[in-house]
Amino acid sequence: MGFGGLSMVQLGILLVIVILLFGSKKLRTLGSDLGSAIKGFKSSVSDEPSGKEQDVQRYQNLTSKEARHNEQ
């Protein structure tokens, strides 16, 4: 038994039809676009700040330390 009630032969035929309709190049770019979209979604959902956000936090820490030093 295959995937969702489809046999392996039916899945193979479906795959050939999809490749003929869209072409392998378009499917390759679609796959890479989908992968980058998923990666971007996961990074935005995660609790860890991104590299850019970490740089902003470091800059804010440095400027606040300089301001405190200048006040003394």
UniProtKB/TrEMBL annotation:
Signal peptide range in chain numbering: none
GO molecular function: protein transmembrane transporter activity
Compartments, record wording: Cell membrane
Biological process (GO), any one: protein transport by the Tat complex
Keyword Lipid metabolism among record annotations: no
Matching Gene3D superfamilies: 1.20.5.3310
Family: Belongs to the TatA/E family.
Function of the molecule: Part of the twin-arginine translocation (Tat) system that transports large folded proteins containing a characteristic twin-arginine motif in their signal peptide across membranes. TatA could form the protein-conducting channel of the Tat system.
Protein name stated in the entry: Sec-independent protein translocase protein TatA
Gene name of the record: tatA
